[in-house]
Amino acid sequence: MTEQVVFQKVNKEDAVNDILDQIIKAIEDGLLHEGDALPTERKMAEQMTVSRPVVREALHSLRLLGIIHSVQGGANYITDDFNQCMITPLTLLFRMNRSTVTQVQQLRSSLEVESASLAAEKCTEEDAAELEWYLKKLDQEENDRERASLDRELHLKIASIADNPMIYQVLCASSVLIENMITDIRALVMQKEKSTKGIDQEHRNLVRAIMSHDTRDARRRMNEHMWTVTGYVRTIEENKRSCGEG
Asked: Distance between CA 131 and CA 234 in Å, rounded?
């Protein structure tokens, strides 16, 4: 509980980093948990013998990292979901490097293949039931936006089954960057093939391999699916580039 958290006097020469280290260590040691409120800025400043602006600067850094969030009135809380912490910094990194959608997709592809293999190792009966539910919903849903959302959720579910927080977080970040991409891909598939049955069948083959705990086939099926998706991404990016040049 936050009442048990007592911060120590900080090194004035590196005060901000020292504050960050103390808060992160409190989380690691179980003194702060997801959703817990931090002590007030005034109380933290008193315990650490620094000014409130210094504490405020450290808290701002934690907000950028997604480790804490603020509510109206100025209270600061530990994030409810540590799995989301890398979204903001990675998004900023991609934007600062002017990464293209194709480059983001290349990163996503490599992680998706590994997550499929790990998911095949660790898939439980409960996980399998959830995967089946997503396939059923995709078959039933006719709205393209809803199907795109289900598509994204299916892939993140596979990543969560893989049980590797780093893979999951980076995939979440890349999904945020290209959150409209799946809808665009489905629109392009419909335009070219008048159907999304090909991609839907790839999903079924992939889920079947994961549920069968066949790691090799899961890698192969995800690789095939990512190859299809990457092809459409490149087409979309080329179309947008042509429109821009025109």
From this structure: 28
Cα 128 to Cα 13, 100, 169, 206, 210: the distances in Å are 53, 34, 22, 12, 8
Among 15, 99, 5, 107, residue whose Cα is nearest residue 61: 15
pLDDT in tens, the chain (246 residues): 445 677 999 888 889 999 999 999 998 888 998 889 999 999 999 999 999 999 999 999 888 878 888 887 778 999 887 766 767 777 777 778 887 778 888 888 999 999 999 999 999 999 999 999 999 999 998 887 788 888 889 999 999 999 998 898 888 877 777 665 566 676 666 666 666 788 889 999 999 999 999 999 999 999 999 999 888 888 877 877 777 654
What's the CATH number of domain 2-80, 1.10.10.410, 3.40.50.740, 2.40.30.60, 1.10.10.10?
1.10.10.10
pTM, rounded to two decimals: 0.73
